[in-house]
Amino acid sequence: MKHFTFDSYRRTFHSDSRMQLLRARTYVQLAVRSRRRFSAHCIESAMSEHDGAPLSTDSFNVKSKEASWVHYRHEDGLDDYRWTTKECHRILEDRPWEEVLKFYARVAAGKLSLSDLNFYWNSDYADSVETACLKDLAASIDVPRELEDSSIPSKVLKGGKWDRRTFKILLAYDGSAFMGWQKQNGLHTIQGLLEQALGKFCDGKRITSLKSEGFDVDAAVVVAGRTDRGVHAVGQVCSFYTWRSDVCSDDVREHINLLEPKALRAISVDEVPRTFHPNFSAKWRHYLYILPLQDNYLHDTCEVESQNADSKNVVKPKMIDASSINEMLSYLEGKQLSFTIFARDTKASRSRGPPTECFIYHARAAIAELPNMEQGSKQRSQVLCIELVANRFLRKMVRVLVATSIREAAAGASHDILVRLTEASCRRASAPPAPACGLCLTEVGYNDLSYSNLLIKTTVNS
């Protein structure tokens, strides 16, 4: 069984009493023995009801059946209108994703671009006002001083027989063709494919020795941000280094483009200073999420039984309200907030590790049309596009933020709900991650953000 320390229990149950911590550990042991799921709320409730009573597996089993899962209760009185976790999965996944996947595949192959999206703009918005608003927004956002120059400091490089050369690679790939970015044994991943292929360009005393003995040598590829399985990219940045002086950028690009011609494409390869790091040198990341819309999404509702036994059945709307989603996301702009509530696969509360604060430069939503991808077809698919730009993102943060904003807009929550949710202490307050197949890493920036290059323009009513 996993070893538990008193420090971990003290942080979980917010108690300094050694007796209470001992009882909590005993309840965890009983839960493991009975093979039941347990939570801090379940253990605290069981401890309060059985205070002073002998502990047994049966007593824990009774309580675990009653409190194995507790739904988060919001304070705005809209819980009966919010989608549950199961409903979120069904509503977001049960959609015509085929056209979105075709679009991303053609963008990754270079046959289309993201600029081919046809956005619906309100006729009341003038281009002159839009341009002025972009300038005002860029001037009004107060960027924290520590974010103004996020590049790694230059340092004195040691001389040697050979100068180490670093190559920066700009990649586009179709996420549906790979099992994610990170290299994993036995799986078809982007990092594994690149490192194996780029090994032929590496050289050095140890590498030469290994090659002479018949060993395969992989390159060390560093990336700006690892993408999950199914996530696409048209502006991913990675790098590798070599000591060989005869390696040129064109050879590297051509070799990568021969690996997976339909799913992986090297847009450009450039030699950069040795101090360049794809992750640490980046100032911002740009993501785009495309959600396909149903034909009757404006009038789509479903009747779902409420999770509250004391209330009657309620009608939970499934309407995708792009205007409300856009307003909710706009409240995040220009703020540095802790987004731990929107992260997954990380510790919800921690005193060590990377910070959870992110600075959102741009967060917007709009309705658009996909370009025609079938010859002779005049029908275009409508989609909801959500565009996010920040200095950094936590794990699965973009997908959770997308799903939560859609859920809250459908429930009729106030426009500042996303900001208020950042102050919550329980991740059940946010929605489960949206499907990975709709997410795309569009760009990684190493200079100041140019708001005029954004897909969804920030406009004001004229």
UniProtKB/TrEMBL annotation:
Keywords for this protein: Isomerase, tRNA processing
Pfam families: PseudoU_synth_1 (PF01416)
Reaction catalysis annotation: uridine(38/39/40) in tRNA = pseudouridine(38/39/40) in tRNA
GO biological process assignments: tRNA pseudouridine synthesis
Protein name: tRNA pseudouridine synthase
The family this protein is said to belong to: Belongs to the tRNA pseudouridine synthase TruA family.
Cross-referenced HAMAP family: TruA (MF_00171)
GO molecular function terms listed in the Swiss-Prot or TrEMBL record: RNA binding; tRNA pseudouridine(38-40) synthase activity
InterPro entries per UniProt: PsdUridine_synth_cat_dom_sf (IPR020103), PsdUridine_synth_TruA (IPR001406), PsdUridine_synth_TruA_a/b_dom (IPR020097), PsdUridine_synth_TruA_C (IPR020095), TruA/RsuA/RluB/E/F_N (IPR020094)
Pseudouridine synthase I TruA alpha/beta domain span: 172-280, 375-447
Record EC number: 5.4.99.12
